[in-house]
Amino acid sequence: MAVLRILFTRLRTEEKLLKDAAERLGIPCELQLVSDTVFGGEPFCSQDDVVLARCVSHNQNEAVAQMLETQGIRVVNSSHVMGVCGNKLTTSCVLEQAGVPQPKYLVAFTQEGALDAVERLGYPAVCKPVSGSWGRLLAKLNDRESAEAVFEHKAMLGAIHNTFYIQEFVDKGSFDVRAFVVDGEPLCAIARTSQHWITNTARGGSASNMPLDDEVSELLRSVHRAIGGEFLAVDLFKSNGRWLVNEVNDGGEFRNSIAPTGKDIPGAVVEAAWNKRR
Ligand SMILES: Nc1ncnc2c1ncn2[C@@H]1O[C@H](COP(=O)(O)OP(=O)(O)O)[C@@H](O)[C@H]1O
Ligand SMILES: [Mg+2]
What we know:
9 helices; 34% helix
């Protein structure tokens, strides 16, 4: 009999909620600790199982998905989707090719190139690591001096930080939106309000329900058409009356979004994963 296997490295609230939801919905489900598992030899599960990959480290999650997919095991999200979402530059390229609106961005590979890029975009601008989450290491560049300082520091941080991904700073007011797309359909969204320009709930942004209208729903569907995936968490900005897609996360955290939206996000995710079984 097929089993839904939740692969994890740290049992966060999300993984507990996913396990509870599976039990509630009668889906046979096991938690599997990644550190107890060797990948590549005899598979730890059957070909009929579906693996919901929930490692905290994005790199680890993608590696585990690749190993399991190589053995013919279905993984949610797929390693391909993880690859697109796990790198902000890759996400931007995929969205741009699909014509999905996003903040203006430029990429450079040296301090001088980065300075040129930010001056083309104009101040303020935002420089972000291509992989990262929870608003870490984001820098708002207000003027040339702050840009020079940030780029000099990044240049010392090693190769990964020498891909300078720079976005225009979007005047989004006091909030942005985190929307959840399950099985290609928008499920619910929260507005994240903060006095800080970084609105992540992990950074103190407060969550309130954001009803999905037709315009946002259609935009979210276009994101899914471009990227695929059973479970996407999409960050949106509204600027000058227009919606922009800031980033797309796979395997996102959702604990702060259940109460405000009243939606059973973990239930929807385990069902979507379970539907992928052979
Ligand atoms: N270009 C931008 N303009 C305005 N605010 C931004 C911009 N980029 C990021 N932010 C703010 O910072 C938050 C975190 O940025 P994000 O790109 O989503 O990175 P992370 O992967 O760390 O969540 C966003 O939710 C938003 O509040
Ligand atoms: Mg984000």
